[in-house]
Amino acid sequence: MQGTLVTAVLGGMLLLFSLSSPLWARVDADEAQLETIRKDLDEDLTAKSETDKIQSLAKQFNVAPDVVQDLRAKKQGWGSVSIELAMAQEFSKTDPNTYPKLTDALQHIESLRAKKMGWGQIAKELGFKLGPVVSAAQHVRNELRKDSRPVKSTVPKIEKPEKTAVRAEKPVRPERVSRPERPERAARAH
Question: Left if phi > 0, otherwise alpha if psi is -120 to 50, otherwise beta: which for 157?
Answer without folding.
Answer: beta
